[in-house]
């Protein structure tokens, strides 16, 4: 009986040791990006798809982080109507002096931009088409093609998600309002005023 009791105590001690070791192992996590500066660069394209003219840069910034700060400084996107532009997005973390754009390129299977707001709905004044993709052929959104229509002003909301399911039905639509259904977390959600001349 003593040998049997000793065996049970030994087994229980082993189980506690094993479970406490297991709980010490951290679960790897892909944390969201801290972004202090966003630059949208618009380069006009001629009918042959070649760059023409001087690129237009529009900046949004907040030294505390665009998702954390009190009130970011946001530039106005001013474009000409009836034109086609290549839009490139650059992201930076000035707190850590870190190029977030390069990080997204490296982890492009885990990141995707969505472009929402009144600029794309109702009497839309913009259209957007992805012009980059990850290794699986899914869109990313660091580079895209924007076409301008009409004379109006509107709002363009730029959302960056990470760890989403890019195969989810609808996720390949850059203007998909229900992007949260694909899962993941938001790294950036900022709205730019848009004016077409």
Description:
The protein is of the alpha+beta class and 197 residues long. The chain has a single domain (37-196), classed as Immunoglobulin-like, CATH 2.60.40.1080. It has 2 helices and 11 strands. The chain has helices at 2-24, 100-106, and strands spanning 37-45, 56-61, 73-74, 77-79, 84-93, 98-99, 111-116, 126-130, 143-148, 153-162, 185-196. The strands form 2 sheets. Strands 1, 2, 3, 5, 6, 8 and 9 form a 7-stranded antiparallel β-sheet that branches. Strands 4-11-10-7 form a 4-stranded mixed β-sheet, with no helix packed on it. The longest helix has 23 residues, at 2-24. Mean pLDDT is 87; it is low at 6-30.
Helix-strand layout with pairing:
Layout: H1 2-24, E1 37-45, E2 56-61, E3 73-74, E4 77-79, E5 84-93, E6 98-99, H2 100-106, E7 111-116, E8 126-130, E9 143-148, E10 153-162, E11 185-196
Parallel strand pairs: 4-11
Antiparallel strand pairs: 1-2, 1-5, 2-3, 5-6, 5-9, 7-10, 8-9, 10-11
Q: What's a quick, concise take on this entry?
A:
The chain starts with a helix and ends with a strand. The chain has two helices and eleven strands; from the N terminus they run αββββββαβββββ. β5 and β6 (98-99) form a beta hairpin.
Biggest pleated-sheet summary: 7 strands, antiparallel
* Distance N to C terminus: 92 Å
- The CATH class, by name, is Mainly Beta
| Count of individual beta strands | 11
Which consecutive residue ranges, at least 5 long each, have pLDDT under 50?
6-30
What overall geometry do the principal axes of the alpha carbons give?
globular
Order of secondary-structure elements: HEEEEEEHEEEEE
The count of helical stretches stands at 2
Specify the structural class: alpha+beta
> What would the average pLDDT be, to the nearest integer?
87
The structural domain count equals 1
What percent strand?
35-45%
Whole-number radius of gyration? 24 Å
How helical, in percent, are the residues? Answer: 10-25%
CATH topology: Immunoglobulin-like
């Amino acid at each position: 009986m003593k040998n049997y009791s000793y065996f049970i105590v030994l087994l229980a001690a082993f189980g506690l040791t094993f479970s406490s070791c297991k709980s010490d192992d951290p679960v790897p996590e892909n944390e969201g990006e801290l972004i202090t500066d966003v630059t949208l660069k618009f380069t006009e394209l001629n009918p042959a798809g070649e760059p023409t003219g001087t690129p237009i840069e529009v900046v949004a910034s907040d030294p505390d982080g665009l998702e954390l700060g009190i009130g970011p400084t946001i530039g106005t996107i001013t474009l000409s109507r009836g034109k086609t532009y290549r839009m490139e997005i650059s992201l930076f973390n000035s707190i850590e002096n870190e190029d977030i754009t390069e990080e997204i390129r490296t982890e492009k299977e885990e990141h995707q931009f969505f472009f929402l707001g009144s600029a794309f709905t109702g009497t839309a004044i913009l259209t957007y088409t992805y012009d980059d993709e990850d290794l699986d052929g899914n869109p990313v959104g660091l580079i895209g093609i924007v076409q301008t229509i009409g004379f109006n002003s509107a709002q363009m909301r730029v959302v960056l998600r990470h760890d989403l399911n890019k195969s989810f039905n609808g996720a390949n639509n850059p203007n998909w309002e229900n992007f949260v259904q694909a899962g993941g977390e938001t790294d950036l959600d900022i709205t730019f005023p848009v004016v077409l001349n």
